[in-house]
Amino acid sequence: MPAPTQLFFPLVRNCELSRIYGTACYCHHKHLCCSPPYISQNRLRYTPHPAYATFCRPRESWWQYTQGRRYASTPQKFYLTPPQVNSILKANEYSFKVPEFDGKNVSSILGFDSNQLPANAPIEDRRSAATCLQTRGMLLGVFDGHAGCACSQAVSERLFYYIAVSLLPHETLLEIENAVESGRALLPILQWHKHPNDYFSKEASKLYFNSLRTYWQELIDLNTGESADIDVKEALINAFKRLDNDISLEAQVGDPNSFLNYLVLRVAFSGATACVAHVDGVDLHVANTGDSRAMLGVQEEDGSWSAVTLSNDHNAQNERELERLKLEHPKNEAKSVVKQDRLLGLLMPFRAFGDVKFKWSIDLQKRVIESGPDQLNDNEYTKFIPPNYHTPPYLTAEPEVTYHRLRPQDKFLVLATDGLWETMHRQDVVRIVGEYLTGVHHQQPIALGGYKVTLGQMHGLLTERRAKMSSVFEDQNAATHLIRHAVGNNEFGTVDHERLSKMLSLPEELARMYRDDITIIVVQFNSHVVGAYQNQEQ
Q: Which candidate, 10, 122, 337, 515, has a CA 20 to 30 Å from the CA of 329?
């Protein structure tokens, strides 16, 4: 897709989808399309403003639309084969096992599995994982972009460096700065664990490095080296806020290089949420900005699984977030700051990186757009000012940080974008991952949920459950296994291959109506090491 359309892409896509769905309810995926979509338009991150109504009006008949796109004019049955389904599901999977030293695993993390399944084209989610080399611990995170992928891409590349620098002692910061000054090789700060598709922007690396260096120089000036203790919570908060500030500043200053100038503006005008975990021994910190989630899988004494939520969604379903927003703005804006469960009636998450349209003053927005490249100045989305925009900023990237001390019964952590949580309950997520990792499936009575089933249907359900164990062995990745269930589960909680095949074969124009991008990281903990930590302190 050409770069100039990328900022405006979600609005165009959302409007086109409403046109598809509004003009007719006919598709060869009949059981999917003849009922309201799984994810209706109110789940989309941006609601098109009335100013864009012309984009949403049907201008052609359903027959013209389908003929123009060569859709089948008669109902057809088309199913992907199991190998084709597996090929799609496994295309972006990645696994990392923490290496053992002297035959003994000294880390509280055994390893992690991650995977992504796109709904948007291109996918707007990103993921990152890295080991901190100059301090202890591992960083893992998922990033959910909106209004394009530019911001989520930048945050996935940069945030961990800001966190790592925030955690460094004064002496190490001085050593790094001296190495840069003298032209010596730098100490490596992070060891990245990346899928080949998880790319870094080479063109922006120098710009990003200069901003990071300015940050550590300020840390050196602020820190006299007297205190050796570094507060992880404070470091996480400072890193999130500073990166968001740098994204904003880079867009305001611009760059002589036209490509970089447009890039920094795309990053700033798009947005991204972030959910990051820092694991150091038994100390687990989760920093969350937006509506992705962190869920802890706990195995009870009887072998069953329970879910412990380690993050809060920053949206209209969070009463504390609603109250925070209202307190930050005048009383006469109490009814307009959140409308239809969206920030200023437009944005679903109440915290995010980028999204300068909800942070900058109107004058600053106009000045940057007018002095920016033609692609930006000609873009209707970037020029649009949100309604009732009186006292910015309305949006913050400051994270909410949760601390949890790991216990031997804490077996794994699931980090996932909202594409997963929209389709599955947290308890089901933890149970499915727990059963996958342990290979133990509790044979509980089949829950029919009030459905009337025939004897033949019951036989089919029992046959599916018998095959459930074999489906586990199809997946060597816990995140892949979870995506398989998220997309393919039927009303009885089992994977239906026909449904999975149809959902994965939906054309791009329809896929986003039914689900969002899904990105998952499953971190498995080493119970023996966690227990050893616990015994040392007793």
A: 10
